[in-house]
Amino acid sequence: MCIIDSKIDVGDMHESSCSHSYLTELAQHPKLENLDIIGAQQYYFTETQKQFIRDHKGSVIRLSETRKDILRIEPTLRSADVVSIDMSAIRLSDAPSAFFPCPNGFTGEEMCQLSRYAGYADKTKALVISAWDSVNDPQHHTSLLVAEIMWHFLDGIDKREQECPNENNPMYTKLLVQTDIHDDAVVFYQNIQTDRWWIEIPTASAVRIMPCHLTDYQALCNNEIPEIWLRYLYK
After folding, report:
1. How far does Cα 121 stand from its chain's mean position?
2. Relative to the CA of 43, which of 66, 108, 157, 179 has its CA 20 to 30 Å away?
3. In whole angstroms, how far apart are CA 157 and each of 123, 126, 127, 154, 161?
4. Which of 2-6, 196-200, 205-209 shows the lowest per-residue confidence on average (mean pLDDT)?
5. What is the pLDDT of residues 155-180, one digit of tens each?
6. In sequence order, what DSSP letters do the residues of 4-70 get, joined into one string?
7. DSSP, residue by residue, the chain
């Protein structure tokens, strides 16, 4: 699951059903494999909340990291079965009727781009958009943006490629990287048409092919450990 939000909704265990603490219970669900938070703003969460997500198969990607290069977030969205957008992740000027309006946040255009990435991902089964007041919405400003976000998600679905990387498909280039980090060569796949990347990672159950970014390939070529490798290796 991938959640786009300005906050990390982790709180008291007794408040797990509340909007500001529902992740406390969700993060501990036995069937949840990953929980990624995108767009969190540091002054709206604590280190304890951040560590809780990390301890429960998750990651927190701050707003500044995301906006620096929004394309780097695409592999994270490509891995998600469910993508949830809290409208409070969008700045006040673009989403004035969000339940928790913030001066800073994603622009409307950036959120539409993230939504399209989610729709374009073959794995994504559902998009959830929440946390805005459609009744008290002057000139329907926020509701119109919600409609545009939904349109971009559906446009992404319409453009899906049904990608399945393997060395027998001429659409993919297989690249092997030998490093000091791992005994065996690390395998990458690049779709030469869409320029999307995948990496083979040994996990506790089997070798899995995970979405990644060009920078992960470049990091291993430089004998640097990409974060995705640490996250899944033998887990």
Report:
1. 11
2. 108
3. 10, 11, 11, 5, 9
4. 205-209
5. 999 999 888 888 888 889 999 999 88
6. E-SS--B--GGGTTSTTTBHHHHTT-TT---EEEEEE-GGGS-HHHHHHHHHTTEEEEEHHHHHH-G
7. -EEE-SS--B--GGGTTSTTTBHHHHTT-TT---EEEEEE-GGGS-HHHHHHHHHTTEEEEEHHHHHH-GGGGHHHHHT-SEEEEEGGGBBTTT-TTBSS-BSSSB-HHHHHHHHHHHHHSTT--EEEEE-B-SSS-GGGHHHHHHHHHHHHHHHHHHT-------TTSTTEEEEEE--SS-SSPEEEEEETTT--EEEEEE-SSSEEEEEE-HHHHHHHHTT---HHHHHHTT-
Q: Any idea how long the chain is?
A: 235
Two structure tokens written together for 173: 């280039």
pTM flag (> 0.85):
yes
Residues linked to residue 128 through DSSP beta bridges, in sequence order? 84
The residue behind tokens 């301890």 is 55
Q: Structure tokens of 109?
A: 């255009």
